[in-house]
Amino acid sequence: MSPAGLLELVLERNPFQRRRLAGLDLGASPALEDLPTLQKSELVADQQDHPPYGTNLTFPLEDYVQLHQTSGTTGVPLRVLDTAADWAWWRSLFARTLATAGVDASDRAALAFSFGPHVQFWAAKEGLQELGAMAVPLGGMTSVARLQTIGEVQATALMCTPTYALRLFEVALEERLEDSLESIERVICTGEPGASLPAVRSRIEEAFGARCLDHAGLTEVGPYGYPCAEHGGMHVYDDEFVSEVLDAEQRPVAAGERGELVLTPLGRTGFPVLRYRTGDVVVNSAERCPAGHADRWLPGGIVGRTDDMVVIRGMNVHPSSIEEAVRSLPGSGEFRITFYSERGGMDEIKLEVELEHGTDARRLQEQMRQQLGLRVRVVPVTPGLLPRPEGKARRVVDERESPWSRV
Ligand SMILES: [Zn+2]
Protein backbone atom coordinates (compact mmCIF):
# COMPACT_ATOMS: atom_id res chain seq x y z
CA MET A 1 0.00 0.00 0.00
CA SER A 2 1.22 3.54 -0.67
CA PRO A 3 1.76 5.94 2.26
CA ALA A 4 -1.11 8.08 0.96
CA GLY A 5 -3.42 5.07 0.69
CA LEU A 6 -2.55 3.96 4.22
CA LEU A 7 -3.20 7.42 5.60
CA GLU A 8 -6.53 7.65 3.83
CA LEU A 9 -7.63 4.26 5.16
CA VAL A 10 -6.75 4.93 8.80
CA LEU A 11 -8.22 8.43 8.79
CA GLU A 12 -11.45 6.94 7.55
CA ARG A 13 -11.67 3.91 9.82
CA ASN A 14 -9.27 3.90 12.78
CA PRO A 15 -10.66 5.60 15.93
CA PHE A 16 -7.27 6.04 17.62
CA GLN A 17 -5.64 7.62 14.58
CA ARG A 18 -8.66 9.78 13.81
CA ARG A 19 -8.78 11.15 17.33
CA ARG A 20 -5.04 11.70 17.43
CA LEU A 21 -4.88 13.56 14.15
CA ALA A 22 -8.19 15.40 14.40
CA GLY A 23 -6.72 18.35 16.27
CA LEU A 24 -4.04 18.92 13.66
CA ASP A 25 -4.52 21.14 10.69
CA LEU A 26 -3.45 18.59 8.10
CA GLY A 27 -5.36 19.89 5.08
CA ALA A 28 -7.29 17.82 2.57
CA SER A 29 -4.57 15.41 1.51
CA PRO A 30 -1.93 15.20 4.24
CA ALA A 31 1.45 13.59 3.64
CA LEU A 32 3.07 11.17 6.03
CA GLU A 33 5.80 13.63 7.02
CA ASP A 34 3.16 16.12 8.19
CA LEU A 35 2.20 13.74 11.00
CA PRO A 36 3.75 13.86 14.46
CA THR A 37 5.86 10.83 15.38
CA LEU A 38 4.16 8.19 17.50
CA GLN A 39 5.47 6.86 20.81
CA LYS A 40 4.69 3.54 22.43
CA SER A 41 3.44 5.36 25.55
CA GLU A 42 0.54 6.81 23.49
CA LEU A 43 -0.56 3.33 22.44
CA VAL A 44 -0.21 2.05 26.00
CA ALA A 45 -2.26 4.96 27.38
CA ASP A 46 -4.98 4.33 24.79
CA GLN A 47 -5.07 0.67 25.76
CA GLN A 48 -5.35 1.51 29.43
CA ASP A 49 -8.20 3.90 28.71
CA HIS A 50 -9.94 1.38 26.46
CA PRO A 51 -9.06 -2.12 27.69
CA PRO A 52 -8.27 -4.74 26.64
CA TYR A 53 -7.18 -3.80 23.08
CA GLY A 54 -7.37 -0.02 22.86
CA THR A 55 -8.81 1.74 19.81
CA ASN A 56 -5.95 1.47 17.30
CA LEU A 57 -8.04 -1.01 15.32
CA THR A 58 -8.91 -0.25 11.71
CA PHE A 59 -11.33 -3.17 11.37
CA PRO A 60 -14.03 -4.88 13.49
CA LEU A 61 -12.62 -7.16 16.21
CA GLU A 62 -13.78 -10.34 14.47
CA ASP A 63 -11.30 -9.64 11.63
CA TYR A 64 -8.29 -10.16 13.92
CA VAL A 65 -6.66 -13.59 14.22
CA GLN A 66 -3.45 -13.15 16.25
CA LEU A 67 -2.70 -11.45 19.55
CA HIS A 68 0.82 -10.65 20.71
CA GLN A 69 2.24 -8.72 23.58
CA THR A 70 5.39 -6.62 23.85
CA SER A 71 7.88 -7.93 26.37
CA GLY A 72 7.41 -4.98 28.70
CA THR A 73 11.13 -4.87 29.57
CA THR A 74 10.65 -1.12 29.73
CA GLY A 75 7.21 -0.37 31.09
CA VAL A 76 3.71 -1.73 30.64
CA PRO A 77 3.22 -4.46 28.01
CA LEU A 78 1.19 -3.54 24.96
CA ARG A 79 -1.27 -5.89 23.23
CA VAL A 80 -1.03 -5.85 19.45
CA LEU A 81 -3.56 -7.52 17.13
CA ASP A 82 -3.08 -8.76 13.56
CA THR A 83 -5.68 -9.53 10.92
CA ALA A 84 -5.20 -12.56 8.68
CA ALA A 85 -3.81 -10.29 5.95
CA ASP A 86 -1.41 -8.59 8.38
CA TRP A 87 -0.22 -11.91 9.71
CA ALA A 88 0.36 -13.15 6.15
CA TRP A 89 2.50 -10.01 5.65
CA TRP A 90 4.57 -10.90 8.72
CA ARG A 91 4.95 -14.44 7.41
CA SER A 92 6.17 -13.42 3.97
CA LEU A 93 8.60 -10.81 5.32
CA PHE A 94 10.00 -13.22 7.86
CA ALA A 95 10.47 -15.80 5.13
CA ARG A 96 12.38 -13.25 3.06
CA THR A 97 14.60 -12.46 6.04
CA LEU A 98 15.37 -16.12 6.65
CA ALA A 99 16.05 -16.72 2.96
CA THR A 100 18.53 -13.81 2.98
CA ALA A 101 20.20 -15.45 5.98
CA GLY A 102 20.65 -18.56 3.82
CA VAL A 103 17.84 -20.74 5.19
CA ASP A 104 15.97 -22.99 2.75
CA ALA A 105 13.62 -25.99 2.72
CA SER A 106 16.41 -28.38 3.69
CA ASP A 107 17.00 -26.63 7.03
CA ARG A 108 15.89 -27.58 10.52
CA ALA A 109 15.82 -24.47 12.67
CA ALA A 110 15.83 -24.71 16.45
CA LEU A 111 13.90 -21.88 18.10
CA ALA A 112 15.26 -21.12 21.56
CA PHE A 113 12.34 -18.91 22.56
CA SER A 114 9.39 -19.41 24.83
CA PHE A 115 6.12 -19.78 22.92
CA GLY A 116 4.35 -17.33 25.15
CA PRO A 117 2.61 -14.14 24.00
CA HIS A 118 5.72 -12.62 22.41
CA VAL A 119 5.77 -12.46 18.64
CA GLN A 120 9.28 -13.78 18.02
CA PHE A 121 8.59 -17.51 18.21
CA TRP A 122 5.34 -17.34 16.24
CA ALA A 123 6.72 -15.17 13.45
CA ALA A 124 9.85 -17.31 13.11
CA LYS A 125 7.76 -20.48 12.92
CA GLU A 126 5.57 -18.95 10.19
CA GLY A 127 8.55 -17.73 8.18
CA LEU A 128 10.25 -21.12 8.35
CA GLN A 129 7.13 -22.92 7.21
CA GLU A 130 6.68 -20.48 4.33
CA LEU A 131 10.14 -21.57 3.16
CA GLY A 132 9.37 -25.24 3.73
CA ALA A 133 12.01 -25.49 6.47
CA MET A 134 11.37 -27.39 9.70
CA ALA A 135 10.67 -25.43 12.88
CA VAL A 136 12.00 -27.16 16.01
CA PRO A 137 10.46 -25.49 19.10
CA LEU A 138 12.64 -25.42 22.21
CA GLY A 139 10.27 -23.52 24.51
CA GLY A 140 9.84 -24.77 28.08
CA MET A 141 13.11 -26.72 28.03
CA THR A 142 16.27 -26.42 30.06
CA SER A 143 19.44 -25.55 28.19
CA VAL A 144 20.62 -29.15 28.52
CA ALA A 145 17.37 -30.47 27.01
CA ARG A 146 17.73 -27.93 24.22
CA LEU A 147 21.26 -29.09 23.45
CA GLN A 148 20.15 -32.72 23.40
CA THR A 149 17.28 -31.91 21.05
CA ILE A 150 19.51 -29.92 18.71
CA GLY A 151 21.93 -32.85 18.59
CA GLU A 152 19.24 -35.46 18.06
CA VAL A 153 17.43 -33.70 15.22
CA GLN A 154 20.72 -32.39 13.78
CA ALA A 155 19.40 -28.84 13.66
CA THR A 156 21.16 -26.72 11.03
CA ALA A 157 20.10 -23.30 12.31
CA LEU A 158 19.62 -21.81 15.77
CA MET A 159 17.46 -18.76 16.40
CA CYS A 160 17.84 -16.91 19.71
CA THR A 161 19.23 -13.76 21.33
CA PRO A 162 23.02 -13.27 21.06
CA THR A 163 23.26 -13.50 24.85
CA TYR A 164 21.52 -16.85 24.83
CA ALA A 165 23.71 -18.19 22.01
CA LEU A 166 26.77 -17.54 24.19
CA ARG A 167 25.00 -18.98 27.24
CA LEU A 168 24.01 -22.15 25.39
CA PHE A 169 27.58 -22.67 24.28
CA GLU A 170 28.76 -22.20 27.85
CA VAL A 171 26.33 -24.90 29.03
CA ALA A 172 27.51 -27.17 26.21
CA LEU A 173 31.08 -26.85 27.51
CA GLU A 174 30.07 -27.42 31.12
CA GLU A 175 28.01 -30.50 30.26
CA ARG A 176 30.41 -31.77 27.60
CA LEU A 177 27.68 -31.54 24.98
CA GLU A 178 29.68 -29.55 22.40
CA ASP A 179 29.11 -32.34 19.85
CA SER A 180 25.40 -31.61 19.86
CA LEU A 181 26.08 -28.25 18.22
CA GLU A 182 28.13 -29.62 15.35
CA SER A 183 25.29 -29.60 12.82
CA ILE A 184 24.56 -25.88 13.34
CA GLU A 185 25.53 -23.85 10.26
CA ARG A 186 23.82 -20.58 11.14
CA VAL A 187 23.00 -18.72 14.32
CA ILE A 188 20.29 -16.18 13.53
CA CYS A 189 19.97 -13.61 16.25
CA THR A 190 17.63 -10.84 17.26
CA GLY A 191 16.39 -8.97 20.32
CA GLU A 192 19.64 -7.24 21.28
CA PRO A 193 22.34 -5.30 19.42
CA GLY A 194 24.80 -8.19 19.96
CA ALA A 195 24.83 -9.92 16.59
CA SER A 196 25.80 -6.68 14.86
CA LEU A 197 28.62 -5.99 17.32
CA PRO A 198 31.73 -7.38 15.60
CA ALA A 199 33.25 -8.82 18.78
CA VAL A 200 30.02 -10.55 19.82
CA ARG A 201 29.41 -11.88 16.34
CA SER A 202 32.89 -13.28 15.96
CA ARG A 203 32.68 -14.86 19.39
CA ILE A 204 29.44 -16.64 18.43
CA GLU A 205 30.88 -17.66 15.05
CA GLU A 206 33.97 -19.10 16.70
CA ALA A 207 32.01 -20.95 19.38
CA PHE A 208 29.56 -22.57 16.97
CA GLY A 209 31.81 -22.82 13.93
CA ALA A 210 28.86 -21.24 12.12
CA ARG A 211 27.78 -17.95 10.59
CA CYS A 212 26.06 -15.47 12.84
CA LEU A 213 23.45 -13.20 11.26
CA ASP A 214 21.29 -10.45 12.66
CA HIS A 215 17.72 -9.41 11.97
CA ALA A 216 15.31 -7.00 13.59
CA GLY A 217 11.65 -6.46 14.22
CA LEU A 218 9.22 -5.11 16.76
CA THR A 219 5.78 -6.34 17.79
CA GLU A 220 4.40 -2.89 16.96
CA VAL A 221 5.94 -2.52 13.46
CA GLY A 222 6.78 -5.96 12.09
CA PRO A 223 10.00 -7.61 10.89
CA TYR A 224 11.73 -4.63 9.34
CA GLY A 225 15.43 -5.52 9.12
CA TYR A 226 17.20 -8.36 7.34
CA PRO A 227 20.90 -9.21 7.47
CA CYS A 228 23.40 -8.04 4.88
CA ALA A 229 25.11 -11.38 4.43
CA GLU A 230 28.04 -9.84 2.52
CA HIS A 231 28.90 -6.75 4.54
CA GLY A 232 27.32 -7.07 7.96
CA GLY A 233 24.74 -4.89 9.62
CA MET A 234 21.21 -4.89 8.32
CA HIS A 235 18.96 -3.58 5.60
CA VAL A 236 15.47 -2.14 6.02
CA TYR A 237 12.76 -3.40 3.63
CA ASP A 238 12.29 -0.15 1.72
CA ASP A 239 9.34 -1.56 -0.21
CA GLU A 240 7.42 -2.27 3.01
CA PHE A 241 8.57 0.45 5.43
CA VAL A 242 9.07 4.18 5.21
CA SER A 243 12.16 4.74 7.36
CA GLU A 244 13.64 7.88 8.91
CA VAL A 245 16.52 8.46 11.33
CA LEU A 246 15.69 11.31 13.71
CA ASP A 247 17.25 13.13 16.64
CA ALA A 248 15.59 13.79 20.01
CA GLU A 249 13.85 16.86 18.55
CA GLN A 250 12.45 14.66 15.74
CA ARG A 251 14.61 16.25 13.05
CA PRO A 252 16.54 14.14 10.53
CA VAL A 253 20.13 13.51 11.61
CA ALA A 254 23.03 14.19 9.25
CA ALA A 255 24.69 11.37 7.30
CA GLY A 256 27.00 9.38 9.50
CA GLU A 257 25.24 10.44 12.71
CA ARG A 258 23.36 8.25 15.16
CA GLY A 259 19.64 8.67 15.61
CA GLU A 260 16.42 6.86 16.39
CA LEU A 261 14.90 4.72 13.67
CA VAL A 262 11.33 5.87 12.95
CA LEU A 263 9.25 3.49 10.83
CA THR A 264 5.92 3.37 9.03
CA PRO A 265 4.97 -0.17 8.00
CA LEU A 266 2.94 -0.01 4.79
CA GLY A 267 1.56 -3.54 4.68
CA ARG A 268 0.05 -3.83 8.12
CA THR A 269 -3.18 -1.90 8.28
CA GLY A 270 -5.16 -3.53 11.11
CA PHE A 271 -3.00 -2.07 13.91
CA PRO A 272 -1.27 0.75 12.02
CA VAL A 273 1.60 2.77 13.39
CA LEU A 274 2.56 5.88 11.43
CA ARG A 275 6.01 7.35 12.03
CA TYR A 276 6.58 5.04 14.97
CA ARG A 277 9.54 5.69 17.25
CA THR A 278 11.15 2.25 17.47
CA GLY A 279 13.62 3.15 20.22
CA ASP A 280 16.30 1.45 18.09
CA VAL A 281 19.39 3.61 17.64
CA VAL A 282 21.06 3.30 14.23
CA VAL A 283 23.65 5.12 12.14
CA ASN A 284 22.16 7.17 9.32
CA SER A 285 24.39 5.94 6.53
CA ALA A 286 24.18 7.82 3.25
CA GLU A 287 26.01 5.02 1.48
CA ARG A 288 24.80 1.89 -0.14
CA CYS A 289 26.31 -1.28 1.21
CA PRO A 290 29.38 -2.35 -0.80
CA ALA A 291 27.43 -5.27 -2.29
CA GLY A 292 25.14 -2.71 -3.94
CA HIS A 293 21.91 -3.82 -2.26
CA ALA A 294 19.34 -1.12 -2.88
CA ASP A 295 17.60 -1.08 0.51
CA ARG A 296 18.63 1.34 3.28
CA TRP A 297 21.75 0.01 4.98
CA LEU A 298 22.27 0.09 8.73
CA PRO A 299 26.03 -0.58 8.79
CA GLY A 300 26.28 -1.45 12.49
CA GLY A 301 22.76 -2.86 12.74
CA ILE A 302 21.08 -1.58 15.89
CA VAL A 303 23.79 0.14 17.90
CA GLY A 304 21.69 0.71 21.03
CA ARG A 305 18.29 1.57 22.39
CA THR A 306 17.14 5.08 23.19
CA ASP A 307 15.96 3.80 26.55
CA ASP A 308 19.29 2.24 27.51
CA MET A 309 21.39 5.30 26.68
CA VAL A 310 22.66 7.21 29.69
CA VAL A 311 24.49 10.51 29.83
CA ILE A 312 27.64 10.28 31.95
CA ARG A 313 29.64 13.44 32.43
CA GLY A 314 28.11 14.90 29.29
CA MET A 315 28.76 11.87 27.08
CA ASN A 316 26.14 9.56 25.58
CA VAL A 317 26.90 6.02 26.69
CA HIS A 318 25.26 2.89 25.26
CA PRO A 319 25.85 -0.34 27.17
CA SER A 320 26.40 -2.01 23.77
CA SER A 321 29.66 -0.05 23.30
CA ILE A 322 30.90 -1.37 26.62
CA GLU A 323 29.80 -4.88 25.65
CA GLU A 324 31.76 -4.64 22.41
CA ALA A 325 34.92 -3.74 24.37
CA VAL A 326 34.37 -6.62 26.83
CA ARG A 327 33.73 -9.21 24.14
CA SER A 328 36.78 -8.22 22.16
CA LEU A 329 38.99 -9.19 25.10
CA PRO A 330 39.89 -12.91 24.85
CA GLY A 331 38.89 -14.88 27.95
CA SER A 332 36.26 -12.41 29.18
CA GLY A 333 32.95 -13.82 30.41
CA GLU A 334 29.72 -12.42 31.79
CA PHE A 335 29.63 -8.78 32.88
CA ARG A 336 27.52 -6.22 34.73
CA ILE A 337 27.51 -2.45 34.30
CA THR A 338 26.60 -0.16 37.19
CA PHE A 339 26.07 3.57 36.79
CA TYR A 340 26.41 5.31 40.14
CA SER A 341 27.02 8.69 41.71
CA GLU A 342 30.16 9.50 43.64
CA ARG A 343 29.89 11.60 46.73
CA GLY A 344 29.74 15.09 45.37
CA GLY A 345 27.39 14.05 42.60
CA MET A 346 29.80 13.01 39.82
CA ASP A 347 28.39 10.10 37.78
CA GLU A 348 30.65 7.09 37.33
CA ILE A 349 30.65 3.72 35.59
CA LYS A 350 31.61 0.46 37.23
CA LEU A 351 32.14 -2.63 35.10
CA GLU A 352 32.26 -5.98 36.84
CA VAL A 353 33.57 -8.54 34.40
CA GLU A 354 34.59 -12.17 34.62
CA LEU A 355 38.23 -12.38 33.61
CA GLU A 356 40.55 -15.36 33.48
CA HIS A 357 43.45 -13.08 34.30
CA GLY A 358 42.69 -10.27 36.74
CA THR A 359 45.50 -8.26 35.19
CA ASP A 360 43.38 -7.85 32.04
CA ALA A 361 41.23 -5.37 33.96
CA ARG A 362 43.76 -2.64 33.42
CA ARG A 363 43.97 -3.44 29.71
CA LEU A 364 40.22 -3.23 29.36
CA GLN A 365 40.12 0.03 31.29
CA GLU A 366 42.72 1.53 29.00
CA GLN A 367 40.94 0.28 25.88
CA MET A 368 37.69 1.94 26.92
CA ARG A 369 39.46 5.16 27.74
CA GLN A 370 41.04 5.24 24.29
CA GLN A 371 38.19 3.93 22.15
CA LEU A 372 35.16 5.33 23.94
CA GLY A 373 36.70 8.22 25.81
CA LEU A 374 35.19 6.78 28.97
CA ARG A 375 36.61 6.47 32.42
CA VAL A 376 35.34 3.10 33.65
CA ARG A 377 36.19 1.42 36.94
CA VAL A 378 36.84 -2.21 35.97
CA VAL A 379 36.38 -4.81 38.71
CA PRO A 380 37.60 -8.31 37.79
CA VAL A 381 35.31 -11.14 38.94
CA THR A 382 36.03 -14.89 39.11
CA PRO A 383 34.51 -16.65 36.05
CA GLY A 384 31.08 -18.17 36.75
CA LEU A 385 30.07 -15.80 39.54
CA LEU A 386 27.82 -13.31 37.75
CA PRO A 387 24.18 -14.22 36.98
CA ARG A 388 23.51 -15.82 33.57
CA PRO A 389 20.73 -14.13 31.58
CA GLU A 390 18.45 -16.53 29.67
CA GLY A 391 16.56 -14.29 27.27
CA LYS A 392 17.10 -10.62 26.62
CA ALA A 393 19.97 -9.63 28.87
CA ARG A 394 19.58 -7.14 31.68
CA ARG A 395 23.12 -6.32 32.63
CA VAL A 396 22.76 -2.70 33.57
CA VAL A 397 22.14 -1.35 37.07
CA ASP A 398 21.48 2.36 37.42
CA GLU A 399 22.10 3.57 40.96
CA ARG A 400 22.59 7.23 40.15
CA GLU A 401 20.96 9.78 42.37
CA SER A 402 18.35 11.65 40.43
CA PRO A 403 19.35 15.27 39.83
CA TRP A 404 16.44 16.30 42.06
CA SER A 405 17.69 14.46 45.12
CA ARG A 406 20.90 16.47 44.98
CA VAL A 407 19.25 19.82 45.33
ZN1 LIG B 1 24.02 -5.28 1.73
Care to describe what's here?
This protein has helices at 3-13, 15-22, 40-49, 84-100, 119-131, 143-153, 162-174, 198-208, 319-327, 360-372, 403-406; strands spanning 64-69, 79-83, 108-111, 134-137, 157-160, 186-189, 211-214, 216-218, 222-227, 234-236, 241-246, 258-265, 276-283, 297-298, 304-305, 310-312, 315-317, 332-341, 347-355, 376-381, 396-398. It contains 11 helices and 21 strands. Helix 4 (84-100) crosses helix 5, helix 7 packs parallel to helix 8 and helix 9 crosses helix 10 (360-372). It has 407 residues and is α/β, with parallel strands linked by helices. Residues 403-407 have low confidence and may be disordered. The strands form 6 sheets. It has a 5-stranded parallel sheet, with helices on both faces. Strands 8-9-10-14 form a 4-stranded antiparallel sheet, with helices on one face. A 4-stranded antiparallel sheet has the order 11-12-13-15. The protein is globular. Zinc ion binds at residues 228, 230-231, 235, 289, 291, 293, 297.
Rounded mean pLDDT is: 90
How many H/I helices?
11
Strand content: 25-35%
Compute the number of strand runs: 21
Look at the helices and sheets and give the structural class. alpha/beta
Roughly how much helix do the residues carry, as a percent range? 25-40%
Which ligands, by name, code or SMILES, are bound? zinc ion
Largest sheet: 5 strands, parallel
How does the overall form come out from the CA principal axes?
Answer: globular
Strand order in the sheet with the most strands: 4-3-5-6-7
Measured between the Cα atoms of the first and last residue, the distance is: 53 Å
Radius of gyration, in Å, reads 22 Å
